[in-house]
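Go through this chain.

——
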Amino acid sequence: MAEDAIPRSQRHHDVFISYAQQDKPIADAVCAKLEAHNIRCWIAPRDVPPGQPFPEAIIEGIEGGKAVIVIFSSHANKSPHVIRELTNAVNKGRIIIPFRIEDVLPSKSMEYLISVPHWLDAVSPPLEKHIGVLITTLDAILGIDRAVVTPQEAVPQPTAPAPPPPYPPVTEPPVTPPDPVRTPPADPTEAEPPSAPSMAADEKPQAPVGAPGVWGKRIAVLTGLVIVALIVILFVFSPGLLPIQQGGNTSPSITPNISHPGISDADYYQGTDAIVDTVVLTVAPTQVMVKNTELYVDADKDMSKVIVTVQFNGGPGTGLVRDNRVVLTRSDGTVTEGKLNFNQRLSTVQLQGSRGTDRIQVIVYLHSGETKTIIDKLLPYRKYH
């Protein structure tokens, strides 16, 4: 049986993702989105079995899929590993889908390998929109039908009302037994005591004195309303019973923890308990300061404690800065902020990240009225999740 004729159910995966190491955050985001739509991916180093030689695992990964997605950028354009993977994919007749994330021209070797009709341009943000087009393209290639058809027998059919009887039912009047003939007593003193007055058949019994009537029900309803109003007033005007949301803060509740002495209680975040990789983060172009007005700022992420550190190292443009913001967007969508002191060299801000890919931004506000984003980049957790 030819390799292309192997049914999808018998394949270990559907696509092989080829990328340069510098583009790993985007490759991981593409892989997560595809697998969320039931498109099985092979990506290194995640799918390299322990103990197997890396080149051998790469060849098996290309052979096992039907298509190869290449994250095309200037880094992939110069990567010999990407060139070798695409060459092997061409030799094995695999469908190659370039997913271009950077507006660069392919090298001659790359142009020879990816001159195919399935070319997807993902340069303009947002990245999620282009991944959706990629999913639609792969659905057509892999033959995945996502239309949900409800079986006819599963649809509840309306039940027709029962037809009325042809003739009204005949109801016979109840038969009342005759009163027994009573013999008057011989002695008038032995006469029966007067019985309770009889009640007509259609007469309702009277409520006993003291039973709750209409006014009793009204009083019970009013009492319930008063109790509810008191509870609402207690919650609104008692501090500490209801959390007060501060405007613009999308971060979760903050819990002090003395196990992170390098971070203030206001910046502490339970990164180990957060659900990571639930959103796809993309970066925007940064604005370079004019020559001789540069600002030197570094941002890094500690892989053991998942702490993002941003440090100001001076620069000739220090006096031009009026204010600044350090914004960390975690992989689960939550946001926390800090601020550097540009009047003090080696000023540091530490923010708790997550065990996924986070986005760090440093925004400066100049005395001239300009706003510049001097840092906007993704910080992955580690290579092996």
